[in-house]
Amino acid sequence: MKVVETFEAARDLLEGSVGLVPTMGYLHEGHLSLIAASVARADTTVVTVFVNPLQFEDGNDLARYPRDVDRDIRLAAEAGADVLVTPSTDYMYPAMPRTSVTVAGVGDVMEGTHRPGHFTGVATVVTKLFAGIDPDLAFFGRKDAQQLAVVSTLASDLSFPVEIVGCPIVREHDGLALSSRNVRLSPTDRNAATSLSKGLMRAASLVDVGVVEANELITSARGIADATDGVVVEYAELADGRSAAPADELRGNQFLAIAARVGDVRLIDSITITDGTVDRGVPLDRPSILYGGT
Fold first, then answer.
1. Rounded Cα–Cα distance for residues 124 and 100 (Å)
2. Under DSSP, is residue 70 helix (H, G, I), strand (E, B) or coil?
3. Which end of the chain has fewer CB atoms within 10 angstroms, the N or the C?
4. What span, in angstroms and rounded, lies between the C-alpha atoms of 115 and 109?
C-alpha cells in the first residue's frame, strides 16, 4: 500500500476501476468492511483519512476526535487497500472555502436540525474527494443513513460518474454500532449506549410481525434509551431512504434512525428497512479492535 498526502499523488497510482472509502480515521471493523467491499469490486482501492473541520459545529468535539494515523496505515494495509491518502487541513482548505455544497431538504432534517452546517461540511468535503480522486465507486456505511442519502443525492445532482454503495453496519458483540467515538465512553456510559441498538432491535422485531405505523416503531426505538440513566435522546425518526423526509408508515426503502448523547459523547444508530425486510447490521463475535484487539 502506498501512502500519499495529495490527490495528485494518489491519481498517479490509480489503475483500472477505482473504489473510494472516505474516512475520518481511527479505523474499526466498520471501516474495514467498507475496504473489503471495495477490494471485491474495484481494481484499486483508495482510503482517505481526513478529520474534516467543516462538519464539526463544536470545536471541542473536533479537538477530541480520536486520531492515530500510524494505526490507520497498518489496518488499511492489512485490509487490502492500495492507496491511503492523508491530506493535511492546509492542503484541503488553503483558505476558508468560498464555495460550499448544500443538499437542500435531505440535509435539513434530523442531523441537519441538531447539527447546523454539518451536512454542508460533509457534502463539501465529499465533493472535493470525488473531484480529486475521480472514483468509479464510493463506499459508505448505513449507520449514517441520512449521510448516505445526502451523498447519493449529491452524486446524482452534480452528475458525478460514481456509484454510491451503502454497506451494512458492523456492530460490537453486544449490538452497539461501531463508531470511533465509542472509545470516549466511560464503562458506565458504554453500557448505557447499548440502549440505542436495543431499542432499534425491538422496533425491528415489530417490523418482522407486520407493524408499519411510524409512531409505534419510533416509540419502540427510543423507549429503552429514554428510560436509561445518562442517555438523552435528541431524535428518533422513520425516514425515506432517498430524501430523508419523515414517513408516517413503512413503504419502500426507509431507515429508522436514533441520535442521543450518552454522557458527553454523541452517538447515532439506524436500521434500514426495504419492503419490510430489516437490515440489522453484522455483529462481531469478539471485542472490537477499537479497544486494542487485533
1. 5
2. helix
3. C
4. 10
31 is catalytic: yes
| CA atoms of 88 and 233, how far apart (whole Å) | 34
Task: Tell the residue number behind the cell numbers 419492503, with chain if given.
Answer: 275
If 0-12 CB within 10 Å is exposed, 13-18 middle and 19+ buried, where does residue 257 land? Answer: buried
Euclidean distance between the first and the last CA atom of the chain, given in angstroms as a whole number: 19
The cell 431524535 sits on which residue? Answer: 235
Residue 144, C-beta contacts closer than 8 angstroms, at least 6 positions apart: 268, 270
Q: Given its phi and psi angles, is residue 159 left (phi above 0), alpha (psi -120 to 50 degrees) or beta? A: left
Distance CA 142, CA 273 (A): 11
Dist CA 123 CA 107 (whole Å): 9
Q: What is the pLDDT of residue 293?
A: 62
pLDDT of residue 60: 87
Q: For the sheet with 277-279, list strands across it.
A: 231-240, 253-262, 265-274, 277-279
Residue type, 108: D
58: cell is: 463544536
Predicted local confidence at residue 59, as pLDDT: 86
**How does pLDDT run across 68-81, given as a tens digit for each residue?**
999 999 999 999 99
CA 280, 285, 288: angle at the middle one, nearest 5? 90
The residues, any chain, with a CB within 8 Å of residue 236's CB and separated by 6 or more, are: 199, 218, 221, 222, 256, 257, 258, 259
At residue 16, φ and ψ (nearest 5 deg) are 65, -150
Q: For residue 138, what is its C-alpha cell?
A: 464510493
Q: Position 98: which residue type?
A: R
Query: For residue range 58-104, what is the model confidence (pLDDT) as tens digits?
Result: 888 999 999 999 999 999 999 999 999 999 999 999 998 999 999 99
